[in-house]
## 1
Amino acid sequence: MSLAPIDYYDCDKLGLDAKRPLLQREYKAIDGIRRYTANQPGVSVLDVGCGDGFFLQELDKALGRKIDYHGVDYSEAKLRKAEKLPYKFSHCNLEVGIPYGDESFEVVYSGEVIEHIYNPDFMLEECRRVLKPGGVLIVSTPNLQAWYNRIFFAVGIQPLFYEVSTKSSLIGSGPLRKLKKQNVPVGHLRVFNRRGLLDLVKNEGFEVIGLEGAIYHSLPKPMQVVDKMFNAAPGMASNLIVTARRPLI
């Protein structure tokens, strides 16, 4: 029996429709895609969890060359907005599979999606299936063991990113309640640390070729200065960005 995800992102309370700049993790993903597709003709890119197509639009602007862009997402509300863009979009339940044939893409990108999935193993299996041999996967996700979460654990505060309630993200946050900008959960089911993410990617047959850290944009400005320093040690950074390759054989 397949599991139906909850569309947390079809919700005005989250303020997700507001215009925003690219986040650091997205800049780094774009740089990675630029590096791994340089001088390759006829490149096809799939955004797994594309939302309204914002990342694909920014990637298109950044690369400035002819690339075949595709996106899949579960949120019908987001896809209705994405359809205004000149790319190809499909509705997709990642618990069931990605609606593309084997070996369809040179690049698969998935930003802040894997933590929402009941079966992340199957999601990565599907990403590998639709990648061509030698193709690159880039996945970003929050880090359970970010430097501040290590402190929160020690003092008995629920760590950021890990949700224990479907009604409020303030549950267990203690004094952090005053700092949180919204209290609506976003549906995080699996939150990874460095080792957990790398082990999972390797277990699904990928060769890991890079790991980077990125800041968490919602932290107060003074904390972001410190947060940026921890990018040099991805295991303690706010976000993990793993780049992996499907082997040729």
Note: Residues 12-16 have pLDDT under 50 and may be disordered.
## 2
Amino acid sequence: MARGDDHATQPWVEKYRPRRLDDVTQQHETIRALKQLLYGSGGSSLTEKVASLPHLLFYGPPGTGKTTTALALCRELFQNITNRETLQNRVLELNASDERGIRGVPEKIKRFAQSSIEESVDAQVPGFKIVILDEADAITADAQTALRRTIEVHSRTTRFVLICNYLSRVIPPLASRCAKFRFKALEDGAVIARLE
């Protein structure tokens, strides 16, 4: 979530990365479903349904907005948190391809999920943390099994957004604990329109 701090030195892909769900290109069905989970059928304020937000699994080709959507979702969930440190204690973003195996990623996630969160006085701030695990299909089956156990144990205080290119590489017991959202390849015209 610390992205977007120094606009002058950022590459374009970060500087112009969509920051809200409404800004994500071409993934209309997914964005509509996510907004329904957050806001219900009306308005722009978070609903009580957010407390029951499921774990999410975003899958599809690279470059289709999966990570961007996960970050935008977190920004909308925690939009009322103004303290940067508090926000960083609520969202953990990891890339599984950086640390393959049974130890690295699941241990970091477990430590984060076990840590306590500061209670918010704002009723609009959900009472849970978010773990975004990019390239979840890159970790071993054993690591995915360990991750599944962590999800089960900490689901009351932590929600997980798993991101992968290939759904078939995520073990079924892990995938079954998530609401799945397929991201489709972007059309050239949509990419050009966004760049312009």
Note: The first strand starts at residue 55 and ends at 59.
## 3
Amino acid sequence: MPASAAADDLFVYPTPPDSMLQLQNRCDYIVSRFWQRCNFDQAMRNRAKFHKAFGDWVSIMPHASADTVHAAVDALLARFVKKGPETLALAQMAREWTFSDTTEFRSDEVYAPFANAAAAHKKISKDDRAIFVADAKRLNTSMVGATVPALAYTVRGNEASGFDRLTPGASVLVFFCRRDDVDASLARIRLDVDPNARELIERGELAVVCVNPEPYSPEWDKDVA
């Protein structure tokens, strides 16, 4: 991975030593040292080049270790912890490169720290923070290790229930499907005959909920459970 010195680059990117042969080690080297030669005052005045550099940095992350990526993200955000406009700019770039519908590398884990930083920053206007507040709320309740919100739903017999009534500590597998969704029905059947899944359910380690977004109908009670 040669150092970048193209005319449209903001700064020269780091180059791993020749003695470093493993791909992950080389990518860790680049990701962790990527911004060392960056003049951030100049970068903030040249958003197009900064945006490109950010994308180049992100493109290497899939090949680096998770610990290195998280540390590098935290280090970059720490540079601007007291600067609202700069934090907003970083969050906007992170959203486009790691969270948009068109990105090649979508990563909730990479985007979440940027969304959280922008959502909580007092020097960013409420209107500018709004999209990141919504993103942060969604990510913080859906990522691995997050607590499932106490979402309410109706079970057969028109009785109210919710995720907070499931077995504490159990993993929750949720199907969102309509009654005529063939693919979801097949997935449920495969799950039902899977011995490993059945064992987890019987031990209380897995809870399965099938959610139909349609309004409740008494006809549902006639279905076979």
Note: The beta strands are 152-155, 159-162, 171-176, 206-211.
## 4
Amino acid sequence: MAANGEKGLRTCTIRPSAIFGPGDRQLLPGMIEVCEKGQHRFQIGDNTSLMDFTYVGNVAYAHVLAAEKLVDPSSPAAGQAFNLTNGTPVPFWDFASKVWYEYGKHMPKRNKIILSYNASMVIACISETIFSIKAMFVDKSKLKEGMTRSRIKQAMSSRYFNISKAKKLLDYEPQIGLEEGIRLGIAVSLKWIVCVCLFSADAFL
């Protein structure tokens, strides 16, 4: 942002929220891991908090639009910061449920165990304590954190953004919706899992 206008350079900032899709190494893989452990039976909170997610292709598309706008000296996009999402905030657990459904591990609402905030925080404190004890004897890089207080707060907090500026100044409109984006992301994840399994089996043989 500070470089905008320096020696003819025109810049702007793209601020995407919770990127997911093909190549995702955090959001979708994390939800799949939870599913594989059978932990998708548990829901933290009443699912009223809204979250904004952004398909990776829409993020790339916004960068192209921004680059095109910055070439034009008359464009007001220069020096601006743009929030970027799919423009469809949804309850966090609704998004997670769609991921698990596409992954083939649908969990009916009637079978879910809903944990209150206080109960979740107690479990998180125990989990963090166990992790800290293990870290005293094992390299942290080889350990995986379980439920943490920060993750609970994130899952129970609303976090969505106004993208009207991106629509107005960049002519941005999401090209891929949430459900299609989840299908595309899961399809790639499943192919990756199959490839890893085949490679492992081949190495074993």
Note: The mean pLDDT is 89.
